[in-house]
Amino acid sequence: MERTPPHPDPSQFALQQVLEALVDPVRRSIVTQLDTTGLDIKCGDFDIPVSKSTATHHFNVLREAGLIRQYYVGTARMNTLRRDDLDHVFPGLIEALISRPAARL
Amino acid sequence: MERTPPHPDPSQFALQQVLEALVDPVRRSIVTQLDTTGLDIKCGDFDIPVSKSTATHHFNVLREAGLIRQYYVGTARMNTLRRDDLDHVFPGLIEALISRPAARL
Q1: Is pLDDT of A2 > 80?
Q2: Residue A22: CATH number of its domain
Q3: B103 touches chain A (CB under 8 A)
Q4: From its phi and psi, is residue A75 left (phi > 0), alpha (psi between -120 and 50) or beta?
Q5: Which candidate from A13, A16, A92 shows the least CB-CB separation from B96?
Q6: Which residue numbers delimit the HTH arsR-type domain (chains A, B) (predicted)?
């Protein structure tokens, strides 16, 4: 458990930080893949066009903003979308940015 | 009329450009003031902590992304929130980011 990185409590979520996370198209793609599949996904299993070290940076930004929760299964770092927490603090935001199939990219 | 600057058609709106416009807190404040008052506001009448030239840049970014419409009344440049166009292309986005009074900044 000591390897689990820190996560903000929903009371610490800030719209500015969430928007700075989601303005990046790679990070928005990570969130979209989690939301679309409804599954937890290993860091190495996302379809994103960046190096592993760049991907790690993007995951950190998403985790620190409260968008994803990370945990280990063996040596694999897994990612969960914090959809319930986000919907509670920012109602409609993920729906408007991510979930709506007709949303124009 | 020749002084009216160009505006994108809603078919040209892009989520990436809209997010890049709204990630800036000053630009988000401009949009919030337009939405909250429901009025058209002169460039010089917004409550924003930036110089006139910086403000002009922010208005240009908002106009080019499709968030505001600008027109002249005499020498005053007026600003209108394109709320209907935005709601049509990005349903729920302005509501989630701007209009909800409980939204955490």
Answers
A1: no
A2: 1.10.10.10
A3: yes
A4: alpha
A5: A92
A6: 7-104
- Count structural domains, chain B: 1
Residue A2 covered by a domain: no
For residue B87, give the H/E element and its range.
Answer: helix B83-89
CA atoms within 13 A on the CB side of B83: 19
Decide if B1 is inside a domain: no
Evaluate whether residue A65 is within a structural domain: yes
**Residues of the domain holding B87:** 13-99
Tally DSSP H helices, then E strands, for chain B: 5, 3
**Beta carbons of B15 and A90 less than 8 Å apart:** no
* Model confidence at A102: pLDDT above 90: no
Would A22 be classed as within a structural domain? yes
Model pLDDT for residues A48-65, shown as the tens digit of each residue: 999 999 999 999 999 999
* Tokens 């450009």 -> residue: B17
- Which residues of chain A are within 8 Å of residue B19 when distances are taken between CB atoms? 19, 22-23, 97
Q: Answer yes or no: is pLDDT of B99 > 80.
A: no
**Cα distance between residue A47 and residue A30, in whole Å:** 8
- The per-residue pLDDT for A3 is 77
The answer to whether A96 faces chain B, any CB pair under 8 Å, is yes
pLDDT at A4: 83
